[in-house]
From TrEMBL:
Gene Ontology molecular function terms on file: glycosyltransferase activity
Protein name, per record: Glycosyl transferase, group 1
Keywords of the record: Transferase
Domain Glycosyl transferase family: 200-344
InterPro entries per record: Glyco_trans_1 (IPR001296), Glycosyltransferase_grp1 (IPR050194)
UniProt superkingdom: Archaea
Native species: Saccharolobus islandicus (strain L.D.8.5 / Lassen #2)
Length: 369
């Protein structure tokens, strides 16, 4: 059995982190020693987000270094000080590398561009690549970030990718990089819902609200207001994934907090249509989760979604930021239940390609297990 370490920058509850936790638990169930090495724990607490893996974080007195870097990167109020970010990034990189070395692992896997250099310093060989890096270039978030990303992706590692988009990220910086497509998966819970035709469901329009500009929640709000001015024969349900105040959006809505997998699957399966208005995605899991529940999807065309989104077969697809087309498609489905049912069939067939068991076979083969 192997000693396997996943290198994290921080532990949280985003979709890409939950994917890693699920893989880690499965490898541990199979008898491997599995570690999550991270600068900080889950919300800085000692909570272990996995059931069976070990968690190693830096000492408490060093954690402010992570906080300062995060503040310099993300808080516009200290933008003038963002030139200091590289100093803290390099300090955190060395700390993380030393943490990795203490695990004495056989297999070390970076999980983001932030963790590639520390992984190399600890003699790791793999990167599990789920992330989108375009936002760093579009918003130029801190001085030097482009240089560090370029250095990370030009490294001589094996890149385990999830989509055509992530393949292209590697090729952009590294013409000789080894790429193994392992794909991605969705939770088994989404395949366990009771499948009811959309035409027999309550008219619920569902989305997931995220605060990052790249997630395009503002586009969803504009689209719903476009419809709500003309008709009110449907309900709007919003999963507040970031637990922030949504406030007055211009229409009535039912708010849901962050949900368990089962609760989320049940909400998908009871909704008439799921709307996803992201601007940047390396893949985009929520539309596939909805598809597994037999729910028609209206979404924007991102690079990542091109791997599974097929217009007029499993979804209706608009261009990024085109809230009027999103509104048009939602209204079309509200007025044509038979079309919602037809899209539901294509959605279910598409989702079957993203089962966890098949993913694990590819992932283990890629890392030599």
């Amino acid at each position: 059995m192997a000693n396997i370490t996943f290198v994290m920058w921080g532990l949280g509850g985003t979709g890409f982190e939950l994917v890693i936790y699920r893989i880690a638990d499965q490898l541990a169930i199979e008898g491997h020693t599995v570690n999550l090495v991270s600068l900080v724990g889950w919300n800085y607490s000692g909570y272990n987000p996995t059931k069976y893996a070990n968690v190693f974080t830096q000492r408490k007195f060093l954690r402010p270094l992570f906080s300062i870097q995060y503040l310099l990167e993300s808080n516009k109020k200290v933008k003038k000080l963002s030139s200091l970010t590289p100093l803290f990034y390099e300090l955190n990189t060395r700390i993380l590398s030393n943490l990795i070395k203490q695990t004495k692992s056989d297999i070390i896997i970076a999980t983001s561009w932030y963790t590639i250099i520390p992984t190399i310093m600890a003699r790791g060989k793999y990167v599990f690549l789920q992330e989108s890096i375009d936002a760093y270039f579009i918003y130029d978030q801190w001085k030097g970030v482009k240089k560090y990303i370029s250095k990370a992706y030009s490294s001589n590692l094996t890149f385990l990718t999830i989509s055509n988009y992530t393949d292209d990220i590697v090729k952009r910086f590294n013409s000789k990089g080894k790429i193994i497509r392992v794909g991605i998966f969705i939770s088994d819970e989404f395949f366990r819902t009771q499948l009811v035709k959309p035409s027999q469901r309550k008219r619920i329009v569902m989305t997931i609200a995220r605060t990052a500009p790249t997630k395009g929640f503002d586009t969803f709000v504009k689209a719903m207001n476009e419809i709500y001015r003309k008709r009110k024969d449907f309900e709007i349900h919003i999963v507040n994934a970031d637990n922030v105040s949504l406030g007055d959006l211009g229409f009535k809505y039912i708010e849901h907090p962050r949900l368990s997998w089962k609760e989320l699957a049940d909400l998908y399966a009871s909704s008439y249509v799921f709307v996803y208005t992201s601007r940047l995605e390396s893949f985009g899991l929520p539309p596939v989760e909805a598809m597994a529940s037999g729910t028609p999807v209206v979404m924007t065309r991102t690079e990542g979604s091109k791997d599974y989104g097929i217009h007029n077969y499993n979804s209706l697809i608009a261009e990024v930021d085109d809230y009027k087309k999103i509104a048009e498609y939602v209204e079309y489905l509200l007025d044509n239940p038979s079309e919602a049912d037809r899209l539901s069939l294509g959605a279910i067939e598409t989702a079957k390609k993203f089962k966890f068991e098949e993913f694990m076979k590819r992932f283990k083969k890629a890392i030599g297990l």
